[in-house]
Design goal:
Blueprint lengths: L2 E9 L2 E12 L4 E9 L2 E7 L7 E4 L4 E6 L12 H8 L5 H14 L5 E6 L4 E6 L3 E5 L3 E6 L2 E2 L2 E2 L9 H17 L8 H12 L9 E2 L2 E11 L4 E5 L9 E2 L2 H4 L1
Antiparallel strand pairs: 1-2, 1-10, 2-14, 3-4, 4-5, 5-6, 6-7, 7-8, 8-9, 10-11, 11-12, 13-14, 14-15, 15-16
Helix pairs in contact: 1-2
Amino acid sequence: MCTFALAWQVFEDVPVAAAANRDEAVDRPSEPPGRFRDDPRIVAPRDREAGGTWIGVNEFGVLVAITNRWTAAELAGERSRGQLVADALTCESADEARNSVVGATDEDEYDGFYLVAADADDAVVLAWDGTLSETRFEPGVHVVVNVGRAVDPDVAAIPESHRTSAAGQAENANRVRETLRPDEREGASAWLDRAADVLGDHEYGVCIHEGSYGTRSSSLISLGTRWTYRHADGPPCRTSYEAVDLESHL
């Protein structure tokens, strides 16, 4: 997944609202969101190739999502990053999920990533390029892509072969963040509707079609007084979002 937008502690009744596009090889098999695990109960899509996931929520109100990270370092990628997300989703809080990632990267090497864990009380992004660093989010809207956070892209650390693409992606991320600044009269539902439009609008450059690679799906999630999960099982520019029945799964 390559674009993740989070409105954290922006809306009083919905402390966690997120909108995300997943970019992947078009022939990589996956399953739409459903019961991913029973104990604890997790709702997430499933990567059928490696068995993990790229975004999900659990019964404790923790959301975890991951994007790839372009790095100059040669990483072994011993274990799937999707398994890292699945492990983090077994945790009872975002802080515990953060600790899970710290422990996992001590034991195994992964390809580069940015992993976000958020609940009503905490939100953190962990960045891995062979070493792990973290940033605690302040309340507000945050956008994470392959080159890091919109406000602080890590373009300098990108391999020369990706430098031009990285600069463009950073610019797109900042445009998404600026557009998704919430109106003071706007609620979480309206913000997510607007985020859906942005994620499917090619003017923002985050719904991509590049032959064998592109935007495969999109997710809209809110956790608060009412939990919602909508999923587009295809590019959001041409695929409708369908409600995921969280009540039956969680």
